[in-house]
Amino acid sequence: MNYEEMCKKVIKIAQNAGNFISSQRIIATDIEEKSKNSLVTFVDKQTEKIIVDALSNLLPEAGFITEEGTSKKKGEKFNWIIDPLDGTTNFIHGIPCYAVSIALTENENIILGVVYEINLKECFYAWKNSKAYLNGKEIEVSKTSHLKNALIATGFPYYNFSKLTEYLGLFKNLLQETRGIRRPGAASVDLVYVACGRFDGFYEITLHPWDVAAGAFIIQQAGGFVSDFSGNNKWLYGEEIVVGNKAIHHELIEKIKNHFPTL
Asked: Which of 80, 119, 141, 199 is the Cys-Cys partner for 245 at CB 3.0 to 4.6 Å?
């Protein structure tokens, strides 16, 4: 496989999906609640179908891991991991931060990632053995060396509150020892903002593979570090992730261990 050529084709698919999303308008009756505070609309579902159909033509032997369950096909070698509209709540409320996220795995290793932030028309991408890019320009993680100078992003638990006390303790600590914390509301965007140095680090729990696969891979190709809260490699399916450059990632892990002692 020519990974670069494949990535270019996926970029087009993501941009086309983003154009569809931009053209849609929803009303209150279009909104469904999949589970507590987990919202979905016909836009999510239709966008996922558009993406799955296009990717099926691009790589027929590949399977899919998708948020809305459009395809449950599993590939022996290749699998796409798709979030058709990351930041659905933002989209519903007209808050301009949401994205299309597409990753491809080969033998369970991510080999390609594309995140298209629709509102700013910013496409972040990387492929196996490549650098990371934003709209054709190479990007890399920040060089910030201490948390006291860092701007950190996070997300808040919205359905599983079992670790809320620990999470709020960490949040309070980081508020006091960083330049600030941001919560844009779309994990894929948080991740690629770390990849290009806008944020110095990011952490969150209760995430899914489609939230993190593409963005985390792009961070790695941009020179960053990705792990679960224990500093290990179980971030894709482990529902927790922490990222940053080497120094910030290390400091975040130490803070997390202080507030999540049972990890």
From this structure: 141
